[in-house]
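Chapter review: from sequence to fold.
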Amino acid sequence: MSANPTTFQTAQRQHTSFLAAAEKRTLLWIAHRLPAWVNSDHLTGLGFAAIVATGACYWWASRQPLALLAAIACLALNWFGDSLDGTLARVRNQQRPKYGFYVDHMLDALGTFFLATGLALSGYMSPAVAYGFLVAYLLISIEVYLATYCVGTFHLSYWNFGPTELRILLAIGNLFALRNPYAVIAGHKFLLFDVGFTIGTAALALILVQAVVSHTRRLYRDEPMPARKN
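The token string follows.
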């Protein structure tokens, strides 16, 4: 049986990224000025369509490198829809916490799959690196969602990096890749995106280990082993 929506307890949001404060002010400014016919579902759909389109642009870049610029535009649209939907719902007091959390993050997972697939087919990244990053992303997502339920804290960022900062880094990487898709390290030539995403995957793995250890210890203290009954 599902919980009564009137007693549903939302988790505490933790967002400490470099751009969090400025982003919040910007999103509130936009939300107060959107036309009445635009609702949070429209924005969620826009964000998902934009991330799928980003993956398609990377695939297209294997034939036309200028598609990397189109990918930047799609990332901007993804930020607009994905970041603004919750803000708009809160500004208009139209929150649907269970529906919004479930749909938003299912679409995030699906959208990241399409993004990774586009990168894998782009020629700018090795498929193994693209899907390795996808696995790491999905594992950290599972940890975040489990912690949201078990610990009551929803982490939107780690190490002062959140989704917005990652979009910006990816957009900058596109500009560099458009000029030269390779990086030379210690005399060896590597795909630029392979280097960047390998570092990103390693960072996600460290974040995952850190979060799992921290949350496991906390839950163990909160729920000690019950005394054995004779």
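Two observations follow directly from the output. The chain has one domain: 15-222. The longest strand covers residues 182-185.
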